[in-house]
Design goal:
This protein is α/β, with parallel strands linked by helices. The protein is 33% helix and 26% strand. A hairpin with a 5-residue loop joins strand 8 (224-231) and strand 9. The radius of gyration is 17 Å and the shape is globular.
Length: 247
């Protein structure tokens, strides 16, 4: 099977771990932002621990999984990168909560293996922006909508770009031609290991940010409606809550 462009994230996780970093996602400012946003979202959605089921497509290393399970939610995380999923399982094991965690190694753009209308809430923490081709984004959002109950809410944390390109992207090659991303340069980034700042060198990966209007249009075209939107200060991102439109 042809390797998907978004599988480059697995290669990047491996690069990070080879440099001695335990968890790539443990950046204090991002975790603080993510957890504050998560609590705001759960409050907004009227989420009830022990009753509402939460899905996280692209769960990565599991810091939101840990937070949701600690808050008493029935949680399922889907992740395509084996290295990241191993770290998510380790995180829950270290917290003594692995018995409460459920993870599946799978491409989160295709949730057809899950029953329809089986989740009350979903959280997408920087997964949608990893998908740069229109059909992949549409497939994912359609698949996500199918497994959510009518009126369910989703929290999206994504990259944000004012005046982002609004035209079609029909192939990965077209994405390369339009956005001209530098995917060959190895860049220095900051990571944290045991609370200590370390410098690592990793390759860049594909991503496709949008602005408020772009995300709003994309949500509407795929059966969602944005009910809250904010630009984040800690990184060039945005957070928005979207509801499944009832037919």
């Amino acid at each position: 099977m042809e390797k998907k462009y978004y599988q480059a994230y697995e290669d990047r996780y491996k690069d990070v771990y080879r440099q001695g970093v335990k968890y790539w996602s443990d950046l204090p400012w991002e975790i603080h932002e993510d957890l504050d946003g998560l609590d705001s979202f759960l409050d907004f959605a009227g989420a009830r621990p022990g009753i509402h089921r939460v899905l996280e497509p692209g769960c990565g290393e599991g810091h939101l999984a840990l937070a949701l399970i600690q808050r008493g939610f029935d949680y399922l995380g889907i992740e395509l990168a084996p290295s990241a999923l191993e770290k998510a399982q380790l995180r829950l094991k270290e917290a003594g909560l692995m018995d409460h965690a459920r993870f599946i190694l799978h491409d989160a753009t295709d949730l057809s293996f899950l029953p329809a209308a089986s989740f009350d809430l979903a959280v997408d923490n920087k997964f949608l922006h990893m998908l740069v081709v229109d059909r992949d984004r549409q497939k994912y959002l359609s698949s996500l909508r199918r497994v959510l109950k009518p009126g369910a809410y989703v929290m999206f944390n994504e990259l944000y770009l004012d005046g982002a390109y609004t035209g079609p992207v029909e192939s990965f090659q077209q994405y390369l031609n339009i956005f001209k991303p530098d995917l060959t340069t190895i860049e220095e980034r900051t990571a944290y290991n045991g609370g200590k700042e370390v410098k690592i060198r990793i390759p860049r990966v594909p991503a496709r940010p949008k602005d408020h209007a772009g995300y709003a249009r994309e949500m509407e075209e795929n059966g969602f409606r944005i009910v809250h939107f904010q630009i984040l200060k800690s990184y060039t991102g945005c957070r928005f809550f979207a509801s499944v439109v009832r037919h």
